[in-house]
Design a protein that fits this description.
Length: 107
């Protein structure tokens, strides 16, 4: 069974799935544009614990470097949003997630 799980699919290059923080950020930003603090609040609401800035902002920076998210300056804050590349990346990550973990949901 373990070998089957490894061969089911490859983790997409678009996002780091360890802890699924980038996946969550992408999903949240697919719903609407948010400030970093709002992203942290939404993650906290979903996971039960809010990521600290030392965890969240490096993930945002990495997603930005990959072209998955972008931001608009709004005063001294950044309003983050998913790019067209990010929408495609989210779909790839979602497909991977369902291939890798969908059987958990079906049982």
């Amino acid at each position: 069974m373990e070998n089957d799980k490894k061969s089911c699919c490859e983790v997409p290059d678009c996002c780091d799935m360890r802890g699924m923080l980038q996946f969550l950020i992408m999903w949240i930003l697919s719903q609407k544009s948010l400030y970093g603090s709002q992203i942290a609040e939404e993650i906290g609401r979903r996971r039960g614990d809010r990521p600290n800035p030392g965890t969240l902002y490096p993930a945002l920076k990495e997603l930005y470097k990959k072209g998955i998210i972008n931001f608009e300056n709004a005063g001294n804050r950044k309003l983050y949003f998913l790019t067209d590349t990010g929408i495609s990346a989210l779909n790839n990550c979602r497909n991977w997630f369902m291939q890798a973990f969908g059987d958990i949901l079906r049982k």
